[in-house]
Amino acid sequence: MTYINIGDHRLFYTDDGAGDQAVLLLHGATCDSHDWSWQIDPFAADHRVIAPDLRGHGRSSEIPGDHTPKALAEDLALLLDRIGAGPVVAVGHSLGGTVASVLAVERPDLVRAVVALDPGYGFDAEFAAGAADAFRGPDPIAVATALLSSVESTEPLPATEWLPTWHRRRTLGMSPEVVAEVFIGMFEASADVTRRPAGEEYLRRRACPVLTVSTQTVLNIKGIDVGWDESVASVHPYSLAVVWDTGHWLQQERPSTFNALVLGWMAGLPS
Q1: Contact 44, 100 (CB under 8 A)
Q2: Measured in Å, how far apart are the chain's first and last C-alpha atoms?
Q3: What's the distance, CA 210 to chain centroid?
Q4: On the CB side of 221, how many CA atoms lie within 13 Å of its CA?
Q5: What is the DSSP track for the chain?
Q6: What is the pLDDT of residues 123-173, one digit of tens each?
Q7: Gap between the Cα atoms of 16 and 86, Å rounded
Q8: Alpha carbon distance 7, 1 (integer Å)
Q9: For residues 221 and 107, what is the distance between their CA atoms, to the nearest angstrom?
Q10: What are the chain's domains?
């Protein structure tokens, strides 16, 4: 296991494979880097693959304080600087997609491209405000498990029927204070990044190629379609947005298809 100290906390990360291109895998809220178990070995066959646990998650320090996407991105910038891993293709799921995008805007020297899976941005202001208020209630863990279960696949494949239980149990094991901070940090404290229309201007500051893979369920919750994803990633002509009919953890439900899509897209990245 590998840890790096950042201020008053430490991050857990793994560093596998080798190659000219490094890939940074970023999990979502209340999750951890185990979410990429279906990707690490296939990606590491030809690339260097860094998979951290974000602060407050998994084996990284669970500390009170700032858990906004910008704070999480600052941790990752320090990590990449110290281990000499940039520029990376930053692959982020849910909250991780927002963190990858923030890293691309704030430290463009560290990010060659972004892959955003059902990213945690593009929310309607009213929905985001209501979600933030819910996480201020007495049981943020219950709110988180209900929210995440609402985006699970309604018709899981037989081989993935156990995933909802795994996702729920990880959330149950987290500190309620950190869970509240993470979701309030995404829905409210980062309104200039995650809410429409304010976040649109910020996301268009990503100068690199962006591959967005969304699920129809989450697009419906946000009240947008794939055209919106395309519009905020249109700065670079190699950007692409697609929609899949799966649950929120699409990289786990369709790993072979997902891996082929991302690795193929990466192979065509402009130099």
Answers
A1: no
A2: 33
A3: 13
A4: 23
A5: -EEEEETTEEEEEEEE--SSSEEEEE--TT--GGGGTTTHHHHHTTSEEEEEPPTTSTTS---SS--SHHHHHHHHHHHHHHHT--SEEEEEETHHHHHHHHHHHH-GGGEEEEEEES-S--EEHHHHHHHHHHTTSS-HHHHHHHHHHTTS-SS--GGGTTHHHHHHHHHHTS-HHHHHHHHHHHHTTTHHHHEETHHHHHHTT--S-EEEEEEHHHHHHHT--HHHHHHHTTTSTT-EEEEESS-S-HHHHSHHHHHHHHHHHHHT---
A6: 999 999 999 999 999 999 999 999 999 999 888 778 789 999 999 999 999
A7: 15
A8: 19
A9: 30
A10: 2-267 (3.40.50.1820)
- Whether the pLDDT of residue 120 is over 80: the answer is yes
Q: What pTM, to 2 d.p., does this model score?
A: 0.97
> 40-93, pLDDT tens digit by residue?
999 999 999 999 999 999 999 987 789 999 999 999 999 999 999 989 999 999
CB 53 within 8 A of CB 111: no
pLDDT at 159: 79
